Amino acid sequence: MMNTQAKLSLLSVAICMTTFNASAALEIYENDGMSFSADGLVNAFYANSSIEKTDAEGATSERDQSRVRTGFLPNNIGFNFSNQLSDMKIGMRSSFWVSISDADNHRDASPADLGTGSLIDIRQFYGTVSGDWGELLVGKDFGLLNRANILGDELLLGFGQTSDFFGLVDGGNVSFGNISTGYTYPFPKSQITYRSPDLNGFKIAVGLMDPNKVAADSSEELPRAEAELIYSTEMDKVNLKAWVSGATQSSEVDDVKQNQSGVGYGANVKFSGFSFTASGFQTKGLGHIAGLDHLVGDESIKSDGYLLQAAYTLDSNRFVLTYGESEVENTDSILDAKHSNIGIAYFRTIRPGLTAVVEYNQTEADVANSLVGEENNTLSIGAVFTF
What we know:
Elements: H1 4-13, E1 26-31, E2 34-55, E3 60-69, E4 75-85, E5 88-98, E6 121-131, E7 134-141, H2 147-151, E8 189-195, E9 202-209, E10 224-235, E11 238-253, E12 256-271, E13 274-284, E14 301-314, E15 317-330, E16 337-351, E17 354-367, E18 371-386
Antiparallel strand pairs: 1-2, 2-3, 2-4, 2-18, 4-5, 5-6, 6-7, 7-8, 8-9, 9-10, 10-11, 11-12, 12-13, 13-14, 14-15, 15-16, 16-17, 17-18
């Protein structure tokens, strides 16, 4: 499915992984309708992985690897500005994301090039205009396809899968949560997006995105279009949330037109401390490489997957069970792949803004013509700081 060169090039892309601000903002200034705030997250995990591989010739190999590295969420800091002007509010957000998993990035470099990279990445830089009619966002933000899928992942503050096939065990960036084992990643994109106000529990978002190129010489006459519909309600202390999202774009290479598209969906139910989530996706030509939805290709490449999760929260303790898988099928060849992850996690809120995490994940891969099999057992222990 993926040759060695493609896997190595993936490492330079993966710093743009994972996800969104999940903490409360700290108010720095507020006066006469104008406010400025900041939010931040720092995390680090000790992870021990035991990997067993079987290659296309049937030869097996094993290795164990210990790392101290970033979890699913990169460390980040964000700044928010808003100004209420009569019936209109103007806002801006910028966020900067950093990986700490760069200690061995320069192992093959010359002495003059040694050092830490820090891998600073800007994923959000946008302005908003909002009112009773809704909100218009202009700038760079995460995409809409599978956005709710990843935001609802119970492992958002945890670790998740680290398939060695994708170079994640020794990668200099982040772990993957359930990217490529249940959903695709809504890669940050330049966009113009409208979000509606609450309409009897329904909220809709529609965006025009900078299209993703199939090849350096491909032609995209129209922008990429993405949309998301979310329904939320509460009935007798039961909270229900359901969603569907989609994306479509067209590319032309050597006078041959290709159509890429995808749909994501899911539902979450919460009651009495329990949370149950089921979500899934289907795509053509989108996210078939490591679940990164900005990497597009031939429409004959199809992928689909699902994620099932159960969680229980008791006081300061949260317990999570998770299983997800994704499959890729190329109808023009036999380059098929299947990736799955099963995990159990324990989150303990020690103090507001400080969470301890213990997590175990078993990730498996079956990739035709490249890797017959991989089994990766990873135990991770970490801490997450937020403000």
